[in-house]
Amino acid sequence: MSDEDVKYMVVCDNLVKIYKVADIEVVALQGLDLVVEKGEFMAIIGNSGSGKSTLLNILGGLDRPSAGKVFVDGKDLLKLTDKQLVRYKRETVGFVWQNNARNLIPYLTALENVELPMLLTGRARRERALELLDMVGLSHRKKYKLEQLSGGEQQRVAIAIALANNPKLLLADEPTGAVDTKTASQILDVFREVNSALGVTIIIVTHDRQVARKVDRVVAIRDGRTSSEFIRKKSYAEELAELSNDIGTVGRDTHEELAVLDKVGRLQIPREYLEALGLIGKNRVKVELEGDRIVIMKPDHPASSGHSVKG
Ligand SMILES: Nc1ncnc2c1ncn2[C@@H]1O[C@H](COP(=O)(O)OP(=O)(O)OP(=O)(O)O)[C@@H](O)[C@H]1O
């Protein structure tokens, strides 16, 4: 274990997950690298099938990787025994799912649902459960059951439940997938609030690029690898001063897009750029160093004046 593995909340290095179905192998993650700082509030985006849920399941200890390295809060997930993994799931991570039937037990009240995970660890329950419901703005709904709560309220309760055991890492799978834009915005505000109040690291997985504006960093996954990152240019507080309540889309105005360069110097060039230069389907490009730029051109380009990537 290196210092880096302990310093960060998440370190994935060349992570590979292969599913075997009958005789066919599906490579869901193919050498994914990811580092998440402690206390970060970030999102992972990618199209359907890009490997988002696979990554989330591995980080949550629900699935084991096939190869590579994955550390969460200094724990080497490949080395945990089944018993240690059960403890890891109970104490280190919390989950918020898109499907609320997976988050909440229908015949219990909101308060009882939040108390339930604490039963297992035997901690003082009532007071903390009330505190958490208050934090997500739902004290007034503590006696309501699942069917009496709106979709947005159910998600808030789900956040409180996920926080019940004081996890270091909160994982959310499409938490705004089933609600309208305004409710989605409010749910993301709750995540931000718990991130700053409790310092819990939050990773939201989504295919919704609209989520991006509310988080500080977005990592895009393509074909089981990280492809690019969007990093907030201004602080969220500065932006709030300028923004309406609309969550908008991730854009060049709020986030800077960076392509990911892996350890051996490989770069994933955004598909739009490849399309613009007619490079889709080509397996070679011309690469030249031009002052402080690396210029990428069609193989048959006559001059060194193609589209460029800052070096
Ligand atoms: N249990 C499994 N058995 C076989 N193949 C699987 C399994 N789970 C995922 N896959 C495959 O792995 C790849 C990545 O799937 P994954 O669910 O991680 O993608 P995703 O980005 O979360 O997609 P979505 O947004 O649609 O949920 C897909 O090709 C998928 O078919």
Automatic annotation (TrEMBL):
<dbReference type="InterPro" id="IPR017911">
    <property type="entry name" value="MacB-like_ATP-bd"/>
</dbReference>
<dbReference type="InterPro" id="IPR027417">
    <property type="entry name" value="P-loop_NTPase"/>
</dbReference>
<dbReference type="GO" id="GO:0022857">
    <property type="term" value="F:transmembrane transporter activity"/>
</dbReference>
<dbReference type="GO" id="GO:0098796">
    <property type="term" value="C:membrane protein complex"/>
</dbReference>
<protein>
    <submittedName>
        <fullName>ABC-type lipoprotein export system, ATPase component</fullName>
    </submittedName>
</protein>
<dbReference type="InterPro" id="IPR003439">
    <property type="entry name" value="ABC_transporter-like_ATP-bd"/>
</dbReference>
<dbReference type="InterPro" id="IPR015854">
    <property type="entry name" value="ABC_transpr_LolD-like"/>
</dbReference>
<dbReference type="GO" id="GO:0005886">
    <property type="term" value="C:plasma membrane"/>
</dbReference>
<dbReference type="Pfam" id="PF00005">
    <property type="entry name" value="ABC_tran"/>
</dbReference>
<dbReference type="InterPro" id="IPR037914">
    <property type="entry name" value="SpoVT-AbrB_sf"/>
</dbReference>
<keyword id="KW-0449">Lipoprotein</keyword>
<keyword id="KW-0547">Nucleotide-binding</keyword>
<keyword id="KW-0813">Transport</keyword>
<dbReference type="InterPro" id="IPR017871">
    <property type="entry name" value="ABC_transporter-like_CS"/>
</dbReference>
<dbReference type="GO" id="GO:0016887">
    <property type="term" value="F:ATP hydrolysis activity"/>
</dbReference>
<keyword id="KW-0067">ATP-binding</keyword>
<dbReference type="InterPro" id="IPR003593">
    <property type="entry name" value="AAA+_ATPase"/>
</dbReference>
<dbReference type="GO" id="GO:0005524">
    <property type="term" value="F:ATP binding"/>
</dbReference>
<feature type="domain" description="ABC transporter">
    <location>
        <begin position="10"/>
        <end position="248"/>
    </location>
</feature>
